[in-house]
Design a protein that fits this description.
The chain is α+β, with helices and mostly antiparallel strands and 320 residues long. The chain is built from 14 helices and eight strands. The longest helix has 33 residues. The N and C termini lie far apart (80 Å).
Amino acid sequence: MKRRRIKKQVYVVGIILLLVIVLSIFGIRYLLYRGTNEYKLKKIGYQPEEISIIETLEPDQIQTILDKEYNVTIPKLLKEKYFIFQNLDRYLTYYNDHKDDDLTHVVSIVNVGADHEYYDKDMVVKTKTDLKNEYLILVNKFHYLDQNFAPSDIVAVRNWYAYGENEIRKEVYEQFRSMFNAAAEEDLKLIITSSYRDYEFQDTLWNNYANSKGEEWADSVAARPGYSEHQTGLSLDIVTDGEGSSMDSFDQTDEFKWLSKNAHKYGFILRYPEGKEDITGYSYESWHYRYVGVETATKIHDLGITFDEYYAYYQNEIEA
């Protein structure tokens, strides 16, 4: 009897020890789980699908989200192709004021800085153009050139290729001539009507517009001095002869249709596309082409984005 009692006691003690071990393991696991991002995100209110999206971020980025209250918009923003994490708070602020906008548009607006006022002197994002980017330098209503900036390789354009006197950077000229010849093989004629313009020229042009119809209208059709792409020597205004010699009717021509399909093969992009006015800051200009090089132009063409969007996402990523 005594042995049986001892065996029973040993059995009970064993069961108790086993339970203690099991509970300890689960307790430790639970304590460890409480320290995971999954637990913390779930506690804030995020659902499993949202958590799986957030957990693809870097640890410091996840912590930034943990420091905020639950926001159903954050995981949706993370799924956007051109999402840039450092812009998260600006995305949320802009979206909160523009709830009718889809998130793709919100991301584009913020990435290019268009959630700020154009030409705002106190804007942090308004900086000098980064000249080291060569053919990819960005000039818009937030990035400007010094008054004395002038490309060192400007060459004159023969009258055969242009109306009036024009100058442009050497490589741009060479690529335009190749494009000109390719179009000519299809009985199409591309003519440069405006190219390199210095600061003083742009100053006179913009002031004439402003004096004629006011500053708001002037800003919609022309850049202020220092903010014009034409000062880079990388932009061309292209028309054709006959009815296509008018800029306003150029998009009705076969030359425009040809450029839409082929300009990128020579390194040119349509700089201010239709429907992208709030991204570029300018009215649609079917005649304004910008040289960025064949590789970049092809990428922009294939993605269907503007140079502003390309620069904000791809070029800044390269520089980082």
